[in-house]
Each structure stands twice: as C-alpha cells, then as structure tokens.
Amino acid sequence: MTATLLKEASPPPAAPADHERKRRARRRARVIALAFVFPALLLLGALVVYPVLFSVGRSFFDASGDRFVGGDNYTEMFRDPATLTAVRNTAIWVVVAPTLLTGLGLVLAVLVEKIRWATAFKLLLFMPMAVSFLAAGIIFRLAYDEDPEKGVLNAAAVSVHDAFKDASSYPNARARDGQGLTKAADGSYGTTAAASPGDTVGLGLVGVRAEDLPGDARPAYPASGRKASADELRGVVYLDFTRGGGGEQGKVDRTESGLPGMKAEAVRDGKAVASATTAADGSFRFKGLDPGSYTVRLPASNFAAPYEGISWLGPALVTPAIIGAYLWIWTGFAMVLIGAGLAALPRDALEAARMDGANEWQIFRRITVPLLAPVLTVVFVTLVINVMKVFDLVYIIAPGPVQEDATVLATQMWLVSFGGGNNQGLGSALGVLLLLLVIPAMVFNVRRFRGSQR
Amino acid sequence: MNAIRRGLASSLVQAFLVVIGLVWLTPLAGLFLSSLRSAQETATGGWWTALASPGQLSFDNYSALLGNSGMTQAFWNTVLISVPTTFLVVVIAALAGYAFAWLDFPGRDPLFLLVVALLVVPVQIGLLPVAKLFGQMGLFGTIPGVVLFHVSYGLPFAIFLLRNYFAEMPKEMLEAARMDGGGEWRIFTRLVLPVGRPAIASLAIFQFLWVWNDMLVALLFADSSSQPLTVELQSQIRQFGSNIDVLAPGAFLSLVVPVVVFFAFQKHFVQGVMAGSVK
C-alpha cells in the first residue's frame, strides 16, 4: 500500500538552490505524514481491502478452490433453495424493518416532545442499543417461548383469547362406540336414539382423567334416577368410568361422576330448540318442550382443544418474530435521530401554521414530515445498511430446526462457508453479494460526505 | 373547551407512551427475573409468577456462574478483547485522522474517499480470507487475532469520525503551534488529542460496545480458550430450555457492562452510536 503511495508521489518541481531547504522540509513533512497514516493503511490494506479482492476472486472458484467455475457460484445462489430463502428473507427484512422503524421512530419522536418525562422515555427506549444481539436474542427466545406457561407473549395471547372465548374443559373427552352416542362430522356428539319430553337420558363419556375433573364435580347417580315431568327432557352427562374397576359400561353407576359445565342442546329436525349447561352432578334439563321426538346433542365446543397460543418461532412466523426483536433494539435509535431533526426544524413555520388554525395532524402531515424528509432518508438508509447485515439475532433466536426458514444472507453465508456447508466458493459469492447490496448505501454515504464538504 | 380537549389529548399521549415504555421494559425484566430462578421453577411457570411469590428468587445462579471457570474465563476474554481493541482503534485512527485533516501527503484525498467507501464493507466478506491469513501467521484462535480483526474493521468509521472532527479545528490554532516550533508529534499529543476529546470519547464508547457485544467475529477467530462471553453463551443455546439458569444470568452479566457504560456516558454514547450508525 505504502509502496504504491510513494511511487504515486509526483516529483517535486525543479527548484533553484535556495529552494533546496524548503524542498527537504516538505519531503520531511511528507514522511512524517505517511508515518501517521501508515498503521491505519497497513491494517486496512491487509485485512479489509485485500480480503475484499480475495473474496471477489475466490467467488469464481469451486468449493475446494481448485477449479475456476466462472459465474457458477452466482447462478447457483439463485438455484439453491436454501440460498433463495435467504435472499427472500433478506428482502423481507430490508423492506419491513426500516419502514416500521422509521414510522415508529417518527411517531414517537413527535409524541415524546409533548411529555415532561421525555428524557427518561428516550433513555429507556435507547437502552437496548447497548445490549448485544446475543443477549437480546436470549431475551426474545424466552419471550417467544411457545409454552404459555413460560413465554410471556403466549401467556398474554392465551389470556386475551380465553377472555373472549371460554376454554373448553374436556378437550379429550369422547364416547365409547355403541353406547348410545354418535359423533358427528363437526366433532359434536348426539344421542343415537330419539328421546321425548318426560324421558331422562344418560350420556356417558370417557377420556377424562379423574384429576382433570373440575373440583365441584359430584356423583351423577342421584340425578340419573330423577323423573322428568311431561313437558321437560332431563338428562345427565357423566364420566362412564368407575375408578378401581367394576361398573357397567353405558350405565350410570353409583360412584361415577357427573361432568359439570358441559353444554347440551335439544335438537329437533336438525335444529337446536333448547340449550342448557350441566350442573355439578352433570344433570341438565330442557323445560317447556313441545311433545315430539328429540335428540340431545353435546356441541363440539365442549371438546375443542385448548388454545395453545401462537407458534412465534414456527416456520411461518419466525422472521416477523425476529424483526420484532430487532424493533425492540432499534426503535430508540430512530426516535432519537428523528427527534434531533425535529428539534432543528424552524419553530416559526410551525408557529405560523398553528396561528393559522391548523390542527396537530395537519401540521404533522403538511409541515413536519416534508421538512424532516432528509433526516428520515438518512435514518432509513442507515437502517437498510444495518438490516442487510443482520446475523446474530437470526442465528440466536431461530431454533435449530427453523433455522433454514429464518435464514438471511449473512447467516447463510456463515452456514455455507463455515457451518457444515464448507463451500467457500459459494460462501465468497454470498459475501460479495452482500457487499454489492450495500454499495448503493456506500455511494449515498460518499455523496453525502462530499456534499457536506462543500 | 379547547383546554379540556388538549388536556385529554395529552393524557392519551402520556398513557400511550407509558404503555410503550412498559413494553420496552418487560423483556429486560423478564430476563432479569428468569436469571434469579432455578431451572425447575422456569420449567413449571413463567418469570411473572415470581412477582406473586418473590420467594423463588435467589442469587444462586449468579454464584454458580462465578464458580463456572468457563464463564469467568470468557468474561475476562471479553475484557481482554474489547479494551485493547478500543485503545488501538482510538490511537491509530487519531493519528490517521490528523494526517488526513491537516498534513499533506500524496494521494491524501483519494485515500480518504477510499476510507469512506470502506465504511460499509460487511465484516462477513473479510472472514474467510483473514482466517486463511491468520492461519498462516499463527494468529487464528488467539486473542490478538480477534483484536486485529476488530481494529481493522473499526478503523474506517473511526478515521472518518476523527478526521471530520479534527478538520473543524481553527487553522490559526495549528499554525500558531507550528510557529512555536512544535513538531507534528508534539502538536498531535499536546493540541489535537486534547481538543478532540469529545469525539474521541464518543468513538471509544461506541467501539468498546461494538466489540464487547460482538459474536460473529469471535465465533470464527477465537478458540475455546480465547472466546468471549457471547460465544460461550452461544455455544450453550442449543439446550435452550434446559439451561436457562445458565443462559439468563450469563446474558444479564454480559449486558450489565454496556448498560452501565450507557447510563454513565449517556451523551457520548448517544453521539457515538448516532455517528457510528453509518457503518
């Protein structure tokens, strides 16, 4: 690096003798200057510039590096399904994350100006920038845990879900074959035989473990013998299982428990005409029925599997979930940077608009956003550069089996080159692609820098 | 009427920001509480159950962590990697930044544009070639190797930042110093460095955090005796469910240092990260 520099140095202009001293002094100054930049240029040349050139060259060779394959690694990149997934996921990241972050940052920057504890809020949101992606990854692996007993997000999802929809108490309950109940296609059970007002029916189910019975469940036997009056249909839903053996299948034995909280419907001509919920002893009754023949149905909702929450880290949602973790880290950054731009806006423009009676939304839409456009662009471009290189977060949060659904260019490059793939040709090509993708941002940086110098 | 409406709007904004603040705090609180619970407790219920029964919280995991030689070694490795890297980046970049700003040498301006261009080069592209190079030099798997790599990829931004800061110095100041017959080295140590202190502080903090938090570079260049905390923890993540009592306190330990740095040097930190984000 330095050698070429010295060669490039133009020879000092031919000078008369009295300039000889000056020339020496200038040469001396140049040598000193080169001594100042030498360590930096040596490291940059050997460990940054040379590797870039090496990688570009290496990307035209095969896995072992012995055979020149031209552009094969680059075409392979778009043929190999794993790399294709990485390209697609990186595209999702680059579109979604910077957009959300810039929008969120803008909204928060505007809102935070209106509160007194703005500094505390900014500090809190900025703090995750200090946290490593690894630690953030562990934090979110924990938060996204699929088990609602462990992952806070699923715990919240399940409690919200259950607040709006009752959880069924008997997800595994079923009827024995040939004991008077028939299962319908929708998962509900209906009595095989018809019943009329004045009858008392017994609906026996199995598949409920004794320890899963609700605490208030009582033996069903007394209710099963109760007589129905002429305009009512009575019945009992019970667990057709006697602990310790004995008991007769299809009959309510003395110790057998009722199943409380079960929904039951009286059905006539395929339509539910009455419904009831079973009491502690499993009994129910439909009053005021017209004479005729009915069947009793236990709707499928009784047997619905419990809501297990959302599979955040499953193949479908893993990328959005990791982007969520990324938002946690970077929102404060976007907010603070945009906030700085906001503080620099001309106050009189805003005041004038307020005087003219513009409301806050109009001011935001017509004045703040257009004036902030340059800052928003800088934030957006900065985020794009950073998002393109996201590695740790994906590597940590995506569980092993889902890794290939979540993979992005940076992780794919790692996997292909070092993580078992061991194809350094393709790996180099992926590295070069990553570099090519950030070049527009590089041009943007150089332009901005040159602009600021003028 | 208007005042009422404004008051209502303001309390809505406050409420919204309180919710956002809580959302931001929750993951961290979750990690901290998890780090204080035993593996069995974590297996049977979420960390929020500890809010109702704080009895399950204890520092046992942390004392176990301190007794774990792999972890303590990794912690020291993190220090041994980040401190020298920060020092070297600051020194080398300050020298070069001064030269790019105030000294005359052939190819100065194109070289500086090259440095600006190198700002965004992803570390990924350097991994493979530098690994080969370090292999030949015997630096692979050593702390100096990790440090050298970090220094090299930290330099473009560091030079960029310091050069721009130094360039703002008044010309008269430097000329006066030269008149007084100070050599460049003397000017650099007595004048440029003190004047550049704010920028150097921001750079140092940014660089320190960057390296402290790095996983990718160390994952490749460090071996099991030189690996930092991030890599040590990463190697345990496969058994995520079963060893959360190691991972959670480890992760918390690894983030305590940067967060303390953050709160201690808020202003420099924010400036450093803002400036460094162009990387």
Automatic annotation (TrEMBL), chain B:
Family annotation (InterPro entries): MetI-like (IPR000515), MetI-like_sf (IPR035906)
Membrane topology: Multi-pass membrane protein
Superkingdom of origin: Bacteria
SUPFAM superfamilies reported in the protein's UniProt record: MetI-like
ABC transmembrane type-1 domain boundaries: 75-265
Sequence intervals crossing the membrane: 12-33, 74-99, 111-131, 143-166, 187-212, 246-265
Keyword Transmembrane helix: yes
Name the record gives this protein: Carbohydrate ABC transporter permease
Subcellular location: Cell membrane
Family listed: Belongs to the binding-protein-dependent transport system permease family.
Lineage start: Bacteria, Bacillati, Actinomycetota, Actinomycetes, Kitasatosporales
Annotated keywords: Cell membrane, Membrane, Transmembrane, Transmembrane helix, Transport
Main location: membrane
Entry annotated with the keyword Plastid: no
Entry-linked Gene3D superfamilies: MetI-like
